[in-house]
Predict the 3D structure of the following.
Amino acid sequence: MAPIEQQLAQVHTRIAQAEQRFGRPAGSVTLIAATKTCSVAAIRTAAAYGQHAFGENYLQEALPKIRELESENFQWHFIGPIQSNKTRDIATHFDWVHSVDRLKVAQRLSQQRPPELEPLNICLQVNISNEDSKSGVIPEELAKLAREVAEIPRLSLRGLMTLPAISSDFEEQRRPFRALHQLWSELRQMGLELDTLSIGMSDDLEAAIAEGATLVRVGTAIFGSRPQKNLKP
Ligand SMILES: *Cc1c(COP(=O)(O)O)cnc(C)c1O
């Protein structure tokens, strides 16, 4: 078996076991394969084993890969930091954007979304650990931003995403995800029709599933570790 096939199967097993262990319905968690630094060949291998949703962080790296794979009908998720002068390519080539954290970016994505395409699916990135170095809207400003983004045409506000401070302790991992779930519930109580919690990566997907993840973004556990210079944002 190809390593990617094995590792993908292992990730599916981890997801299924976590769903069962934490009382989540089977199949309620969707896997996005995070393919930053991965070759087109690696993406094709994952696709051969049933993976069709992929997440990319860097536009410059993503665009040639997306073009090369254009005929494949994959679903592309933009999960990296957004520079507002780069929104046109994101609006044109992606199906989802997980890292919207300000109104201006949402407005530009809306204006630049080609009219023949479906509305662009949006998650708001929340700075849940309140670290200065991390992008994301702070919790105090989330409700206002969510209300504004929900009104913007050609965008479909689906939910929230966060990149918490890294921890190897399971309970520590759960805490920021629980806090994000709480914010998500409050937005739903306000009447926003959110269905997506984009939380969990290779090292903390069980904690994320325990706290309600509907979508996990996994790279290393499928494709192996990345070259050092391409660190996580
Ligand atoms: C790289 C990355 C991932 C995947 O991380 P792994 O630890 O390799 O699974 C998920 N989300 C974002 C935003 C990323 O940048």
